[in-house]
Write a structure and sequence with these properties.
This protein is about 75% helix and about 0% strand. The protein has 9 helices and no strands.
């Protein structure tokens, strides 16, 4: 994984038209793997992740001048990636592709088993199947806390949701996942 660059220096380079292209390449190399893992957990299909990640970086590039620096650059990137993933999930659901169905869980299992980025064992696969059964926003909160180890304050900045609502959502997600995994453990 690429080392994360100094955000202030990178932002200065991104805002300078002479260094923007090189700085943006550094941004993609540094933050791309982190966002890819996050999106893979949300979408559970590497083919879909590639499209959403590309859309994310297109939006980032187009909106660089609008980034005010009120939050960390990584928070802003997570927010764009998460919003893109949620939009993609909504568009798939409008097309009749349900992600809480048994069919999606089977598809997620096939995709994860065949995915070159997934090297997990059966327990991890069951966790990802349980994740697939969560509502989109609960899945996102769980992923931010469990996999990305982000504090509620940063998740709040990313999602625009209060910390209290995030804690409640995370608690519900944990309970649902525990129920799904209870059957696997027994």
């Amino acid at each position: 994984m690429a080392e994360l660059p100094d955000e202030e220096a990178l932002l200065l380079q991104l805002r300078d038209t002479r260094s923007r292209a090189n700085a943006f390449a550094r941004l993609v190399n540094a933050y791309g793997p982190m966002l890819h893992r996050h999106l893979l957990r949300m979408l559970q299909s590497s083919a879909d992740v590639d499209d959403v990640l590309q859309n994310t970086f297109v939006k980032v590039f187009r909106n660089l001048d609008r980034f005010r620096g009120d939050s960390k650059l990584s928070t802003w990137l997570y927010r764009i990636a998460t919003n893109e993933a949620l939009s993609w999930l909504r568009s798939q659901q409008r097309r009749g592709r349900k992600f809480v169905s048994e069919g999606h869980q089977e598809m997620a299992q096939r995709n994860l088993s065949a995915d070159p980025y997934f090297d997990g064992d059966a327990a991890q696969l069951e966790l990802h199947r349980a994740l697939a059964s969560l509502p989109d926003k609960q899945r996102a909160v769980f992923i931010f806390r469990y996999f990305d180890n982000l504090p509620y304050k940063q998740i709040s900045e990313i999602t625009g949701t209060s910390e209290g609502a995030l804690k409640a959502s995370h608690h519900l997600a944990v309970k649902k996942i525990e129920e799904k995994l209870k059957a696997y453990v027994q």
